Amino acid sequence: MNKSIEVKDLDLAFGSVKVLKKLNIDIFEGEFLVLLGPSGCGKSTLLNCLAGLLDITDGQIFIDGKNVTWAEPKDRGIGMVFQSYALYPQMTVKGNLSFGLKNQKVSKEEIAKRIAYAADILQIEDLLDRKPAALSGGQRQRVAIGRALVREANVFLFDEPLSNLDAKLRAELRVELKRLHNRLGNTMVYVTHDQIEALTLADRIAIMRSGIIQQLDDPHTIYNKPTNLFVAGFIGSPSMNFLKGEITDGGKAFKFGNTTMSLDGYDGGKLTDGTAILGVRPEYTTVDTTGIAGKTLEAVVDLDEPMGSDSLLWLTAEGQAMSVRIKAEDIVDKKTVVHLKFDMTKASLFDVNTEQRI
Amino acid sequence: MTAIDVNIEAVEPRGTKPKKVLSNRNIMVYGVLIVAAIYYLIPLYVMIMTSVKGMPEIRMGNIFSPPVEITFEPWVKAWAHACTGLNCDGLSRGFWNSVMITVPSTIISILIASVNGYALANWKFKGANVFFTILIFGAFIPYQVLIYPIVLLLSQIGLYTKLAGLVIVHTVFGMPILTLLFRNYFISLPEELFKAARVDGAAFWGIFIKIMLPMSLPIFVVAIILQVTGIWNDFLFGVIYTKPANYPITVQLNNIVNSVQGVKEYNVNMAATMLTAIVPLVVYFVSGKLFVRGIAAGAVKG
Question: Are residues A208 and A294 in the same domain?
Answer without folding.
Answer: no
